[in-house]
Design a protein that fits this description.
Belongs to the TTC38 family. This is Tetratricopeptide repeat protein 38. InterPro entries: TPR-like_helical_dom_sf, TTC38. Keywords: Repeat, TPR repeat. The chain is an all-alpha fold. The chain has two domains: 162 residues, Alpha Horseshoe (Serine Threonine Protein Phosphatase 5, Tetratricopeptide repeat); 172 residues, no CATH class. Helix content is 72%, strand content 0%. Helix 7 runs antiparallel to helix 8, helix 12 runs parallel beside helix 14 and helix 19 packs antiparallel against helix 21. The longest helix has 19 residues. The N and C termini lie far apart (64 Å). The structure holds fe (ii) ion.
Length: 466
């Protein structure tokens, strides 16, 4: 890793920071590096360790407040509504920013976080774009916007915002290989699979521990249903990314997906038990929670007996029943309360979401609750109660709107699978026909998928019995 940048180094890079403390500048770089690489580096003291030292080095350093608050808001899925300390931390940041001369870029960073905290995610992205237009190597603006586009399901923007600055990320710019990884992910989500894989491999040639570039290749193999290639790649590279504490669980989730695809459920459960469940236990992070729910729910749809595994997931998910920060996360919390048959938690999640959806104010996510979030949650409940007709009636009309809940194409595929399983379990000929239509569509978009072939065989068998 390049030496951490002091005041002069940031100034020379055209990204001057308003602090006289070289220590604060270096710690800002240390936090940024760990965020960009998805890895808490113990040699640096981890992100949390660096943030507290950063605060001590210069309590009035506005960009220090920006990176701390931004990571809390964007990285952990917290919100001002849920976390009063975060609310006051944001106020402190804003007050500080008004009490000292800042660069235009720094002022825009404060504004973007203010927008994000108000739930105005698209407007926050506009502000980060404004920064990037004049400061293409501002990695914090690039990554915050990248993550926010991901939450919004704005796949094209996620790709193009990196494309616009990509030529400036020449090899001598610190962390430039990781920007190849960001770009490759946007390309992959917009189906430029070959270019995405090429760039991810270039990034891995520079730094093989880049877990995000490994992740792009895992997606390429997933989207193309290249199951054997996918399995071999994860096995070959495991030692390089397994210590990426922020992403390893998710990469293991991708690994287990190939086994679900193949119908090798025991192998998927082994990865779940050895890597996915324990990582949630140690991190408690939202991404790890989503991966746990998502893996168990897919196995549940396939009819696999899961024992008491949902109970452990629910222990973590319960804390987020009333979050409603991202509807995508809500749906995954709900999967765990349904899986663990905890009616009280299920009711609590739905009623609190309904309540907030009545008056979403300027909150972008909550404004999607009545049209997308709630019907999706209700469909999950109806399916669990055996009301498959109702589940289809709720889910089918919104299937092209689900992208607005964000997440990756691979993650949202769980909702497509749910719709197909619900339609397959319906008695009416019309819904059976719908299941077959959806399966034909799936087969064309993702040929040679063993799961699709299994479901097509099942649909044909149901038809012949009827
Ligand atoms: Fe992924």
């Amino acid at each position: 890793m390049a030496p951490l940048r002091d005041c002069k180094a940031w100034q020379d890079a055209g990204l001057g920071l308003s602090t006289a403390s070289n220590e604060a500048c270096k710690l800002f770089d240390a936090v940024l590096s760990q965020y960009a690489t998805w890895r808490n580096d113990e040699n640096l003291g981890g992100i949390e360790g660096c943030l507290s030292k950063l605060k001590a080095a210069d309590p009035n350093f506005v960009m220090g407040h920006v990176i701390a608050n931004g990571l809390e808001l964007i990285g952990t899925g917290s919100s001002v509504r849920l976390n009063k300390d975060l609310g006051s931390a944001l106020k402190t940041m804003t007050t500080l920013s008004r009490s000292q001369p800042l660069t235009e870029r720094e002022k825009l960073h404060v504004l973007a976080l203010d927008m994000f905290a108000r739930g105005q995610l698209p407007k926050a992205c506009d502000v980060w774009e404004q920064i990037l237009q004049s400061h293409p190597t501002d990695l914090l603006a690039l990554r915050f916007s990248h993550d926010t586009y991901f939450y919004l399901g704005y796949q094209i923007q996620m790709r193009d915002s990196v494309a616009q600055v990509f030529p400036f990320w020449t090899p001598e710019v610190p962390l430039s290989s990781y920007v190849k990884g960001f770009y490759s992910f946007g390309l992959m989500e917009t189906n430029f699979f070959d270019r995405a894989e090429e760039l991810a491999r270039e990034a891995l040639d520079i730094n093989r521990t880049d877990a995000w570039s490994v992740h792009t290749i895992a997606h390429v193999n997933e989207m193309k249903a290249e199951v054997e290639k996918g399995l071999a790649f994860m096995k070959e590279t495991e030692d390089n990314w397994k210590d990426s504490d922020m992403l390893a669980c998710h990469n293991y989730w991708h690994w287990a997906l190939y086994y679900v695809e193949k119908g090798e459920y025991e192998a998927a459960l082994t990865i779940y038990d050895n890597h996915i469940a324990p990582r949630l236990l140690s991190s408690g992070s939202m991404l790890d929670l989503v991966d746990n729910s998502s893996m168990l729910y897919r196995l549940h749809l396939e009819g696999v007996k899961l024992g008491d595994r949902w109970d452990n997931v629910l222990k973590h998910a319960k804390k987020h029943t009333k979050d409603h920060v991202l509807l995508f996360n809500d749906a995954h919390v709900l999967m765990s309360s349904l899986g663990a048959k905890d009616q009280k938690t299920t009711d609590e999640l739905l009623t609190t979401l309904q309540e907030l959806a009545k008056d979403p104010g300027e909150d972008h996510e909550l404004s999607l609750a009545p049209s997308v979030g709630l019907p999706l949650c209700q469909a999950l409940v109806e399916f669990e109660n055996g009301n498959c007709d109702k589940a289809v009636d709720l889910l089918y009309p919104i299937r092209y709107q689900l992208i607005h809940l964000g997440g990756s194409n691979a993650q949202r595929d769980i909702f497509s699978q749910l719709l197909i399983h619900a339609a397959l379990n319906c008695k009416s000929q019309a819904k059976q026909n719908l299941a077959k239509c959806l399966l034909r569509e799936r087969d064309v978009m993702r040929p040679n998928s063993p799961m699709t072939e299994r479901l097509i065989r099942r649909a044909a068998a149901v038809h012949s019995v009827a």
